[in-house]
Design brief:
By secondary structure, the chain is of the alpha/beta class. It is about 45% helix and about 15% strand.
């Protein structure tokens, strides 16, 4: 494995020390640039990105601390190792507080320099890996999807991997989860992105027309075929053909689709001529394809030919933190389209949105937000604006909270306790042991404050669902 060459800036005015450093590092995987003055160093830092800086503090035109502070203030991705003959504790503390990663006292050996730099480069590499992983976890939008839940982060990574492959993709998921959005995301990130993306819904086209829609027909092939027509497969040549609701396709047509996949050729209805096409197939269904195979409704050989790269889209109810993110995005979009003033949800509405199971998934959420925006006025969406069935679901939730509040033991201040106070031990323990409910509430409120009021973000870092926070905050309001 070839080691990555690291960029190193040596800031040193002593020619002998600079030559010694070059000699020590000549067999190391790094490229060394030498600056003799502070101004020269700053010029290099403004023009290039360095993995590490070997910084002498005593320079002819400025103190090395000025360069160290510049690197910190500009947030440059450079690890700084201070090199100086001043080994006083005050100096060490000062440079470390200013952002230095390590400290080398002159004179130093080759092994000491190499080890320090190796540790420095490895630390920087690990930081880059962690930052990349954090960016992946913090993605709130991707390829047309909205949502930062862990379930969707996994989907995003699968899409990225599948996009660079030529293999067939089989997308499964409930109705309304965004299967066509997923297919388009794969196409748009693939090498075929500049070619057509053609989508066919196999369940929406009459059975006697679906073959013609996919493969095309010649003039006179059937009643109404007044001229030759290319089908979706030819239209998608060089690009992607998306077959939605693939399990709705008749068995007779499934055999023709299998032959098409195996040969890469299209035979139009009514024609005896084969035409070669280059398309990538992505298909989707909201049914269990293996169950369809077991029931004899879907060919087993076709299933295994299509089911190469499976993508399972999670339902909205399993995407803990995403429903509010999606709802807010939709509210902003629809308010602009309808020229309304809506820009936020009340906390009670957020609770209702987070707690509802969304059997119709994102498509149902879209309809609900559109309904609210079209039929109401205002800047904030309130509970009274919620359409059915969310309005009845919210009333049920409120009633449940009130009943739970009546049956919950409380302190004299009215704050709920998770368990009755043990009698006979006096009040000493009650002042030393705080109820878990209090600690939990403080932790949640503190996290929300740190996340600038964003409950989904706070839930992400607390490791719980946003719905849990909304329910708890609603119960606190009733206390």
């Amino acid at each position: 494995m070839v080691k990555k060459v690291s960029e190193l800036l040596l800031v040193e005015d002593d020619p002998t020390m600079a030559l010694l450093c070059r000699e020590y590092l000549h067999d190391q995987p790094c490229h060394l640039t030498h600056a003799e003055t502070g101004e020269d160093a700053l010029s290099h830092l403004q023009q290039e990105i360095y993995d590490a800086v070997l910084l002498d503090l005593t320079l002819p035109d400025m103190h090395g601390l000025e360069i160290l502070r510049y690197i910190s203030e500009q947030q440059l991705p450079s690890e700084v190792i201070v090199v100086t003959s001043d080994c006083s504790m005050n100096t060490v503390i000062e440079v470390m507080q200013a952002g230095a990663r390590d400290f080398l006292a002159k004179p130093f050996s080759k092994s000491r320099l190499v080890t320090t730099l190796s540790n420095c480069f490895e630390s920087k590499r690990l930081k880059e890996v962690v930052n990349t992983y954090r960016e992946e976890l913090d993605r709130h939008q991707f390829g047309g999807f909205i949502g930062s839940s862990l379930a969707m982060q996994r989907v995003y990574r699968v899409i990225e991997s599948a996009a660079h492959s030529k293999a067939t993709v089989f997308i499964t998921g409930e109705s309304g989860t965004g299967k066509e959005v997923c297919a388009e995301a794969i196409h748009n990130q693939s090498e075929r992105s500049d070619k057509p993306f053609i989508a066919i819904n196999c369940g929406a086209i009459p059975k006697d027309l679906i073959e013609s829609e996919i493969f095309g027909h010649v003039k006179g092939a059937f009643t109404g075929a007044l001229k030759d027509r290319d089908g979706a497969a030819l239209a998608a040549d060089g690009g992607t053909l998306f077959l939605d609701e693939i399990c709705e396709m008749e068995l007779a047509l499934q055999s023709k689709l299998l032959r098409f996949l195996q040969t890469g050729t299209v035979q139009k209805v009514g024609s005896d001529r084969l035409e070669a096409v280059d398309v990538r197939i992505i298909c989707a269904t909201n049914k269990d394809p293996l169950k369809q195979v077991e029931d004899g409704a879907f060919r087993e050989d076709l299933f295994y030919r299509l089911h190469v790269l499976p993508v399972l889209l999670p339902p909205l109810r399993e995407r803990d933190n995403d429903v509010i993110e999606i709802a807010q995005q939709l509210l902003t979009q629809y308010a602009a389209e309808e020229e309304k003033a809506f820009n936020r949800f009340s906390e009670d509405v957020e609770l209702a949105l987070a707690a509802y199971p969304w059997p119709g998934n994102v498509r149902q959420l879209q309809n609900v937000i559109r309904n609210i925006v079209v039929l109401n006025e205002g800047a904030e969406v309130t509970v009274s604006m919620l359409p059915a069935p969310l309005d009845s679901d919210m009333n049920s939730t409120s009633a449940t909270n009130q009943v739970g509040q009546l049956n919950r033991p409380s302190t004299t201040s009215g704050q709920s306790l998770p368990f009755p106070r043990v009698m006979g031990q006096g009040d000493s323990l009650s002042t030393q042991i705080r109820p878990l409910a209090e600690l939990e509430r403080e932790a949640i409120e503190h996290a929300i404050t740190l996340c600038d009021g964003s409950i989904p973000t706070a839930a992400h870092y607390l490791g719980i669902s946003a719905a849990t926070i909304y329910r708890k905050r609603n119960s606190w309001k009733n206390q």
